[in-house]
Amino acid sequence: MKNNVRIILLIFWIVVIFILTGYPSLETPKIEEFPVDKLYHFLIFFILGVFEYRLLKTYLFFLLGCSVVIIAELQQLLIPGRDFEILDIFAGVIGLLIAYIIFKWRSTLKNEISKT
């Protein structure tokens, strides 16, 4: 996939994140004793990490990713019916971290296989 397409997909996904996290009174389905909204945060930022991985160096990957996580959560302070939750930030950062670890591991594994 060419970098231009990757950049467009990354920007599109960041816009989707801000639309989803900025939508007033967006309710997630409730499952007793399971915080489904944390799973959603994990997933949307895992996907962000997938789009970022091949485009950005490690420090930019985490700088951009964590910035989007924090800004998306901070915007909820201004949106009626939305709440700022520090655990949402942690879920987003963990999603980024898991995406990074998976792709880094895959890349390392490919390099080791190609050496043999």
Molecular structure report:
- This protein is mainly α and 116 residues long.
- The protein has one domain (3-10, 37-115).
- The protein contains four helices and no strands.
- The protein has helices spanning 3-22, 36-53, 58-75, 86-115.
- Helix 1 packs antiparallel against helix 2 and helix 1 runs parallel beside helix 3 (58-75).
- The longest helix is centred in the last third of the chain and has 30 residues, at 86-115.
- The protein is globular and about 55 Å long.
- The model has no long low-confidence stretch (mean pLDDT 89).
Brief summary:
This protein is 74% helix and 0% strand. With 116 residues, the chain is mainly α.
Topology:
Elements: H1 3-22, H2 36-53, H3 58-75, H4 86-115
Helix pairs in contact: 1-2, 1-3, 2-3, 2-4, 3-4
N-to-C order of helices and strands: HHHH
Q: Look at the structure and give the mean pLDDT.
A: 89
Unreliable residue stretches: none
Q: What is the radius of gyration computed over CA atoms, rounded to a whole number of angstroms?
A: 16 Å
Termini separation comes to 27 Å
Structural class: mainly alpha
The strand count comes to 0
Quote the beta fraction.
Answer: under 5%
| Tally of individual domains | 1
Helix count equals 4
Characterize the main sheet: none
Helix content: over 70%
